[in-house]
């Protein structure tokens, strides 16, 4: 019997960010391995015209939860959606709901965050810092609370090269930042943002670092742990391989490459691609929840959930495998054939952006205009290039994350728990994982049918022929122009034509003699 699964039995668990990528996988695993848990409270806001209930219904009826329904048929009764907007004071939670949360909660998993790289400092602080502070305040009033698990990111200290499992202080206190954002206007905030974030690349990594400081400062006598995953990718094994449902991290770029939009990227092939499957992160998170509640470590422990130091893979290998998978399993209606190379030089990047990205988009938009349709490709391409530029920081550097706490925890688990809550990335076969990831992107994210693969291959063949035809036409036009202007080109041309003529005459004569 798994000790961790048994631990969550009968527990009331509060999850923030349960509608997000990681939150959904966390809920799924909890219900599947501990179907006798008491209740999962989730803090949800209405979104995109959907009520709370509609959002929960959609999640529970998704492919991800198919296995859960077999082991926990009354899952609908065990999930309690509570209206909450983490941007509001007290999260806008009603008095009755707050009372229930305060008196019943045993474990908190705090996953909610804004993960956008381009968020304003005000919004990122509100969600990643102030909301964390408020949740800790709530937690401190929960008499039955056994553990508070905070999800951060391995990149919260990406300004350092070697990162230990400790909380590093930021120069300005989070409280000072929160206070000053209350009275500063947006224009001033925008102006001071670069100074505050310093050598971090965006407000996301900066505010996640501030969030960790808040956790340390407000921990009181609660049992708290911080988990720092690196780049979270599709599932490795559970509930099935390759599940993914959003465009964050590599997923969006995998689509862009498969559809032939992204054909060159400024990336260092030898830099470590520190990807970590979402089910691995969830397994570690649940193991940490158990360990923190049962063993009550004296201080707040930080756990790195990374792959680089135990089982490294680099961006070159990853990109190569992504493209190799598209050979076998192409995406439907590609814009161009998937092809891409890594460049590390700024000039080459600009050149490739102009020739491989912007020029085809302009030509395609011209064709759309000619055929009476609305041009859109240039806009799509500009958006993609902006996204890629925000990822560049992460694909041109390598980091070393120490994993002492994570390895210590692994050794504390029983063999059964090591199997059920496996977070040992040494067992991960990257080539297999990436192939499943690409397949998952096609099936679960793009919802493409596998039956369409022959047609997708035909489409790629047509694109290849168009590509050859286009290049030949371009060459002939260029050559014709050259001949018209240069005597030397004319001489070369005359030489080639007469050589071909002589060769053909000789060939014809010798074949006539043989007959
Ligand atoms: C040697 C050589 C060998 C061979 C070479 C082969 C080369 C192959 C090259 C190709 C290789 C491709 C495969 C390799 C992949 C490499 C990729 C590497 C990625 C690395 C990522 C590193 C990140 C690490 C950071 C740390 C991790 C974290 O802690 S946080 C999680 C990461 N966070 C993110 O990823 C968020 C990033 N996103 C954003 O910040 C913003 O979305 C944006 C700024 C990028 C874009 O903002 P914008 O306002 O323009 O657009 P937006 O409105 O956000 O969205 C546009 C449309 O997309 C839809 N969308 C966006 N996000 C989502 C979502 N999460 N889920 C669903 N849909 C989403 C959105 O709805 C919009 O759609 P429309 O409304 O229809 O327009
Ligand atoms: N994805 C990754 O690569 C990595 C993620 N992380 C961390 O993991 C955690 C989970 O990330 P992930 O699941 O990928 O992120 P998602 O963007 O998929 O999910 C974010 C969650 O936060 C919720 N949320 C955001 N704003 C509010 C709000 N105002 N009120 C209530 N809920 C809100 C979202 O709700 P809604 O659905 O309503 O928007 C959603 O459930 C985050 O803390 C992130 O920093 C760390 C490393 C890598």
Automatic annotation (TrEMBL):
Q: Membrane topology per the record?
A: Single-pass membrane protein
Parts of the chain that traverse the membrane: 466-483, 492-509
Report the function annotation for this chain: Catalyzes the reduction of fatty acyl-CoA to fatty alcohols.
InterPro entries to which the protein is assigned, alphabetical = FAR (IPR026055), FAR_C (IPR033640), FAR_NAD-bd (IPR013120), NAD(P)-bd_dom_sf (IPR036291)
In the record, biological process GO terms are: long-chain fatty-acyl-CoA metabolic process; wax biosynthetic process
| Boundaries of every Thioester reductase (TE) domain copy | 15-284
Give the protein name, as stated in the record. Answer: Fatty acyl-CoA reductase
Q: Name one Pfam family in it.
A: NAD_binding_4
Gene Ontology molecular function, alphabetical: alcohol-forming long-chain fatty acyl-CoA reductase activity; alcohol-forming very long-chain fatty acyl-CoA reductase activity
Q: What organism, scientifically named, is this protein from?
A: Cebus imitator
């Amino acid at each position: 019997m798994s000790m961790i699964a048994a631990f969550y039995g009968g527990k009331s668990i509060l999850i923030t960010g349960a509608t997000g990528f990681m939150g959904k996988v966390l809920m799924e695993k909890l219900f599947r391995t501990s179907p006798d848990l008491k209740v999962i409270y989730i803090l949800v806001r209405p979104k995109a015209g959907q009520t709370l209930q509609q959002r929960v219904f959609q999640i529970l009826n998704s492919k991800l939860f198919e296995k859960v329904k077999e082991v926990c048929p009354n899952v609908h009764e065990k999930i309690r959606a509570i209206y909450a907007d983490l941007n509001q004071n007290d999260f806008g939670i009603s008095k009755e709901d707050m009372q229930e949360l305060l008196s019943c909660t045993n474990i908190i998993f705090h996953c909610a965050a804004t993960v956008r790289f381009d968020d304003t400092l005000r919004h990122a602080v509100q969600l990643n810092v102030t909301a964390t502070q408020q949740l800790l305040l709530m937690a401190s009033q929960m008499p039955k609370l056994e553990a508070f698990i905070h999800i951060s990111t391995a990149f919260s200290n990406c300004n350092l090269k070697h990162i230990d499992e400790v909380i590093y202080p930021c120069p300005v206190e989070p409280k000072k930042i929160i206070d000053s954002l209350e009275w500063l206007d947006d224009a001033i905030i925008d102006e001071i943002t670069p100074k505050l974030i310093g050598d971090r690349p965006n407000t996301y990594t900066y505010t996640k670092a501030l969030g960790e400081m808040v956790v340390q400062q407000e921990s009181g006598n609660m049992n708290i742990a911080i988990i720092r995953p690196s780049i979270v990718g599709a599932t490795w094994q559970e509930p099935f391989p390759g599940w993914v449902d959003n465009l964050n991290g590599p997923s969006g770029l995998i689509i862009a490459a498969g559809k032939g939009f992204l054909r060159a990227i400024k990336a260092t092939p030898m830099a470590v691609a520190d990807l970590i499957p979402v089910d691995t992160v969830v397994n570690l998170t649940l193991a940490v929840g158990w360990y923190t509640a049962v063993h009550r470590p004296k201080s707040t422990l930080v756990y790195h959930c990374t792959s680089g130091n135990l089982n490294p893979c680099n961006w070159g290998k990853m990109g190569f495998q992504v493209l190799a998978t598209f050979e076998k399993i192409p995406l439907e209606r590609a814009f161009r054939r998937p092809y891409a190379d890594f460049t590390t030089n700024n000039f080459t990047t600009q050149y490739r952006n102009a020739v491989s990205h912007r020029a085809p988009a302009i030509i395609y938009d011209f064709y759309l205009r000619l055929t009476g349709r609305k041009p859109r490709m240039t806009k799509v391409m500009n958006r993609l290039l902006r996204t890629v530029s925000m990822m560049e920081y992460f694909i041109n550097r390598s980091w070393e994350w120490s994993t002492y706490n994570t390895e210590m925890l692994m050794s504390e688990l029983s063999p059964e728990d090591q199997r059920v809550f496996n977070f040992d990335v040494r067992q991960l076969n990257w080539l297999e994982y990436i192939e499943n990831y690409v397949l998952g992107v096609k099936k679960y994210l793009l919802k493409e049918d596998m039956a369409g693969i022959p047609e997708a291959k035909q489409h790629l063949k047509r694109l290849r022929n168009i590509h050859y035809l286009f290049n030949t036409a371009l060459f002939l036009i260029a050559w014709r122009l050259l001949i018209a202007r240069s005597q030397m080109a004319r001489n070369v041309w005359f030489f080639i034509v007469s050589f071909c003529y002589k060769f053909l005459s000789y060939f014809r004569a010798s074949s006539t003699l043989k007959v």
